[in-house]
Amino acid sequence: MCDSAKSVAVLASGTGTLLKAIIDNQESRYRVDLVVADQICPAVQRAKNAGIRTAVVPMEENRNAWNEKMVAAVASVDPDLVVSAGFMCLLGPAFVKEFAGRTINTHPSLLPAFPGAHAVRDALDHGVKVTGCTVHYVDAGLDSGEIIAQRAVEVEAGDTEFELHERIKKAEREQIVHLLHHAELVNGKVVFNV
Ligand code: GRF
Description:
- The chain is built from six helices and nine strands; from the N terminus they run E-H-E-H-E-H-E-H-E-H-E-E-H-E-E.
- By secondary structure, it is an alpha/beta fold.
- The strands form two sheets. A seven-stranded mixed beta sheet has the order 3-2-1-4-5-6-7, with helices on both faces.
- Helix 2 links the parallel strand 2 and strand 3 (53-56).
- Helix 1 packs parallel to helix 6.
- The protein binds 5-O-phosphono-beta-D-ribofuranosylamine.
- 5-O-phosphono-beta-D-ribofuranosylamine binds at residues 14-19, 85-86, 106-108, 169, 172.
């Protein structure tokens, strides 16, 4: 058990509201040392505004080469934990192996329902009455790793994809920050005492 602040690398692709919640709630339990994005996006600017180191690793046709660059970028800060928070690229075996047990992802559905990039739309199309969010360990599959925590969010009559996603993201922000405040390293794996 290690009680010092955990070093966190965050992966993001978009607006970065999850990243902002993670940054804003840093305390003695963890600190964000690096933000990696696959494109220039608001998340990168949020990190820069907070004085956090950033790296942009654009997706390439050669997925193996891209994965190696992702490994190198993240390994440069030797983080205890890698958090994929709105990162819209699938991490390959090289990355998953390098940071096994230390990489987690937040996803806007109650997995195993609705994996993939359109989880909120798919849930609405299916007509579910309750959906939510999941934090899971990252494996080489699509949103298929071991589940760590989930929160339910009710679908309201007439919800648009945007409205429902905004409520889910509120739950995602609370959930990921709560987990990060309770992260412990045990034999190289991050576990959450919640
Ligand atoms: C979240 O719902 C995340 O789970 C999904 O993309 C969204 C990211 O939102 N993969 P933001 O960019 O942090 O606002």
